[in-house]
Amino acid sequence: MTDAESLERAIHERVMLVPYDPAWPARFATERTRLLSRFPESLHEVEHIGSTAVPGLPAKPIIDIMAGVDSLAVADGLIAPLLESGYVTSATFNAALTDRRWLMRHADGRRTHHLHLVVQGERLWRERLAFRDALRASPALAGRYALLKAELAARHPDDREAYTRAKGEFIQAVLRSAVPITGYR
């Protein structure tokens, strides 16, 4: 399979959840080390987010990484070097984002990593960490989220954006309950 074919397949990959893989934290750690060694002055904290960051939670087998930057201008300046470092992105998709920049790595027609460049400490940064931490702290909450994800993956197997949007109400409810801990508003 050529790189172009792999990318095309990865872009149109179905929403499929798999059981938790204990190798996911190591895959994150490897990529975190690679990113921080390549961009030590531009990236601050690099966090494992998303369902692969929650032990025991079924997930799409894609490592979600959130890297803290000083500004979206810094994030924009990192796009070209990240493309040279094995990531791909959509300029059109990123132009529609007001709070982050998004990139993806892929191999053999499957997404392997999503990289979210986010201004460290701003609302999106705090929300993503608060949601991850709430799921890690409560197996019951993580279980409810797993059931919802399975239902939504079955309902939207060919529409990643619809799948993601449909999780929004649950995520917002969790964040509202996290106000005392995170300062989320």
Describe this structure in words.
- The protein is α+β, with helices and mostly antiparallel strands and 185 residues long.
- It contains nine helices and four strands.
- Strand 3 (101-107) and strand 4 form a beta hairpin.
- Helix 5 (123-137) crosses helix 6 (139-155).
- The longest helix has 17 residues, at 139-155.
- The protein is globular and about 40 Å long.
- The mean pLDDT is 91.
Neighbour order of strands in the largest sheet: 1-2-4-3
Largest sheet at a glance?
Answer: 4 strands, mixed
The name CATH uses for the topology is: Beta Polymerase, domain 2
Please tally the helical runs, counting DSSP H or I stretches of 4 or more residues. Answer: 9
Shape: globular
Radius of gyration: 16 Å
Oligomer: single chain
Number of domains: 1
Strand runs, count? 4
The proportion of residues in beta strands is 15-25%
* Proportion of residues in helical segments: 40-55%
Low-confidence stretches: none
Query: How would you classify the helix and strand content by structural class?
Result: alpha+beta
CATH class: Alpha Beta
CATH architecture: 2-Layer Sandwich
- How far is the N terminus from the C terminus? 47 Å
Mean pLDDT: 91
Order of helices and strands: HHEEHHEEHHHHH
CATH homologous superfamily label: Beta Polymerase, domain 2
